[in-house]
Amino acid sequence: MAEMKATTLAPGGIDHVEPSPYSPSSPEFWVYVGLSIFILLAIFVGKAPVKIAEALDARIAETRRTLDEARAIRGEAEALLANAKVQFEASAGDAAAIVTHAEAEAKTLLSEAKRHAVELTARRAKMAAQKIEAAERQALADVRVGAANAATAVAARVIASTHTATTDKILVDSAIARMN
Predict the structure, then answer these.
(1) What span, in angstroms and rounded, lies between the C-alpha atoms of 76 and 15?
(2) Considering the entire predicted model, what is its pTM?
């Protein structure tokens, strides 16, 4: 093979030549040689083909054993399937009885739900009436308070406009005289 040359100018002006990976002076060449020797030794000295053949034979035996187990499991599954079909056919009559029972139970539940709905509506109507009565009582109380406040304000204005200092002095003197 032709040797490949790559030249680079290294610092200081010295040319540097890279060797080809296939030349005996390159490290890659010696790695290839060492690997090849290892593989040849593994094949011929280590009897690798015999060990590989034994491993393959063991794998084939394991596969045959697995296939035999699979056949046995398939036979069991077919027997179970036949049994299930018989049970399914037997349970078809039971299914009709279950459906009839479920329909009767559904009717009962529906009538109970209607009764509960009527009771709930009545309770809520009663609660609404109670809330309305409470709101009416509160509104009446608010009107009474407003009327009392208005009456107090009017009375205060009337008293303030009709009483003078002389009138107040007469009232105070008579109140003191009553106490004595």
Answers:
(1) 81
(2) 0.34
